[in-house]
């Protein structure tokens, strides 16, 4: 029997406890022996919880108990969680986490500590919640040169965009509804401004390309400014708007990493990933295109991935999985303003002005105040010089 602990008894932490209890038999079969939940650390009390006998409030109890071999960090953020994870690793414990903010910011540092201590630091749940994506990238797809990863990595924004498209509602109205239904946070900026998706694409980039990508250096545009006019133009173009996070290597060896709303052609499967679902498209030079789809958030889907990592840590208690990436390098990221992309643009100019400035533009239509069109492939830096009065602009994903 292997003793384990959970740090944080919120949505994810309580889901982890539930899965450990609910699927004991399956977990024991996967791990080779039973996982026994010894402690749950939280500052709060939960008098009605069936797990109340395991609750503790002092982290040092976990840290100093040599019986506890595996710790699941479910606190979130980069404050106390980072401190506790560092201390658990230094105490020789394997750590698993769903904390994308911490992994995106400090993954290289934590993996180095884990390497020095000969323990595992695993974080499958940090990207795509319950969707298996990191492990396939680290094992099944390692025979490939990965040409691109492109994902819908945030459920809240995908839900909001789906409602805007299907019901023709404004962003603010749908956000308010999503907050009332508990789908969106009261402070929604991490989701709607694209930071959450940015952290997740950074983790994927780190893993696949082996160098730490600092989320603060990644061009990130969220969904706040998407208008109902733009949603209607996408429909005319037989496309749907999706917040995509993308990474691909450039010919000069630099890495293009960015997050932005995209026009996605209906022919592309990502156009049909709706509501809170996430999906990650991975293109490898041998395998071609693959698609990973599922629930990117939620109590049990996220716990499924966290407990999967606990089982993996149990199987590798005395053997470290070879996993690390080097620290951030200068000039490693491409300037996304120089990458040729097809653009949807909405301008306050008339059709004639658009045709004069960009003869190859495909006009989608105009209303009284604006004209929407698609460009040929061009860099954003060129588009900025075209002399038109741009209201909104979003890249278009190829079929
Ligand atoms: N807020 C995130 C989302 C939760 O909406 O996808 C999972 O990281």
Give a quick precis of the structure.
This protein has 399 residues and is of the alpha/beta class. The protein contains 14 helices and 16 strands. A six-stranded parallel sheet has the order 3-2-1-4-5-6, with helices on both faces. It has a six-stranded mixed sheet with strand order 8-10-9-7-11-12.
Which cofactor or ligand species appear? L-homoserine
The strands making up the biggest β-sheet line up spatially as 3-2-1-4-5-6
**CATH C-level category of the largest domain:** Alpha Beta
List the total number of helices. Answer: 14
| Number of extended strands | 16
Structural class: alpha/beta
The proportion of strand residues reads 15-25%
Mean pLDDT: 96
Question: What's the arrangement of secondary structure elements?
Answer:
Blueprint: E1 2-7, H1 11-22, H2 24-31, E2 35-41, E3 55-56, H3 59-63, E4 68-73, H4 80-90, E5 94-97, H5 100-117, E6 121-122, H6 134-138, E7 146-152, H7 155-167, H8 171-180, H9 189-192, H10 195-209, E8 219-220, H11 228-236, E9 239-249, E10 255-265, E11 277-284, E12 288-295, H12 299-315, E13 342-347, H13 351-357, E14 362-366, E15 371-374, H14 380-383, E16 390-396
Parallel strand pairs: 1-2, 1-4, 2-3, 4-5, 5-6, 8-10
Antiparallel strand pairs: 7-9, 7-11, 9-10, 11-12, 13-15, 13-16, 14-15
Helix pairs in contact: 1-12, 2-12, 4-5, 5-10, 7-8
The structure holds L-homoserine.
L-homoserine (HSE) is lined by residues 129, 154-156, 191, 196, 296-297.
